Amino acid sequence: MGRTWSWLLAVIVAAIGLPSTSHAQAAQADPAAASRGRHVYDSRQCRGCHDFGRQQSTGPDLVGVTDRRSPEWLRAWLKDPSRPEDPTARALRAQYGLQMPNFDLTDQQINDLIAFMAEQTQLHAKK
Fold first, then answer.
1. With the CA atoms of 21, 25, 27 and 33 taken in that order, what torsion angle do they form, in degrees rounded to the nearest 10?
2. Is it true that domain 19-86+100-125 has CATH number 1.10.760.10?
């Protein structure tokens, strides 16, 4: 029974995504990369499920995602969002009832998207 509770607690903590200052510092927004990331965000129609600063039911609000998740986790998620062994991925699928599609992003596109999300998080923090 103790193992079940430990697993459940890990899933809840992962779903909540507690902020970490080290994540925010690691995902500083490079303006050129953020601009390219905006293009990827727009061209892949990410806004259909995600936005910045507006709560949506289709997918998580992306403001603060670079604070809640490490760059390594974001890279792995964007590379393969269907990772079944990842408790955070399972919790997000359960919470939103959807599976994010795999857009077959290159490593450069993924890094640019992370820079764009970091930039948007910083912009919303200043409001």
1. 150
2. yes
- Cβ neighbours, 10 Å, residue 51: 17
| Per-residue pLDDT tens digits for 59-107 | 999 999 999 999 999 999 999 998 888 899 889 889 999 889 999 999 9
**What torsion, rounded to 10 degrees, do the Cα atoms 120, 112, 35, 61 define?**
-30
* Mean pLDDT within 114-122: 96
Q: Largest Cα–Cα distance in the chain?
A: 50
* Residue 59: exposure state from Cβ atoms within 10 A (0-12, 13-18, ≥19): middle
What residue segments make up the domains of the chain, in order of their start?
A: 19-86+100-125
